[in-house]
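Morning. Coffee machine broken again, so started the prediction first thing and wrote up yesterday's gels while waiting. Chain of 187 residues, entered below exactly as on the submission form.
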Amino acid sequence: MPHDKGHDAELIRKVLGGETDSYAHLMRRYIKLAGSVAYGFMGDFHAAEDVVQDSFVKAYRNLTSLDQHDRFRPWLMGIVRRTAIDALRKRDSKRESSLTTAEGDIQLPDPEPGPEARLESADRQRVLREAIASLPEGQRTVLAMKYLQGRSYKEMAELLETTESAVESRLVRARQALARVLRHFEA
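Came back before lunch.
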């Protein structure tokens, strides 16, 4: 469904006027994009679903704070981004806690790797997540759509409501930015 700011604004006016069913139309319109943004952060389908669900609930509860109704899309994507970051922080905090307080609870499929190897692998994953999270939202989104979700340029262009060549350009810039950030993290 093409992005139509005027239609968004009309749906929001209806929701705020008591027609709460109109919110379902907004959800259907943005669920794929929200899912792609969340998945870009989380790297896990189920965790991304939780983030999207939480984000839509937060957006609904705070809809009265949106002054410019035609800005719903970027406002919602900001909520998705912040919700995903919060979820990652909670997840990382739980992992660190379980590593330091209950190392016996860690189940490894292969008994070969020692604690140093596990921590090094976890550290590499953390660095990559932090590097991706430091990129602008648009770059994170295209990286996630391409490499985590395996979407074609055509699918990405449809979801992002742009052209395939624009998607390709964004992806090139995102890869370059990620490489720079990773070099910085490695230094």
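DSSP finds eight helices and no strands in the chain. Going to sketch it on the whiteboard this afternoon.
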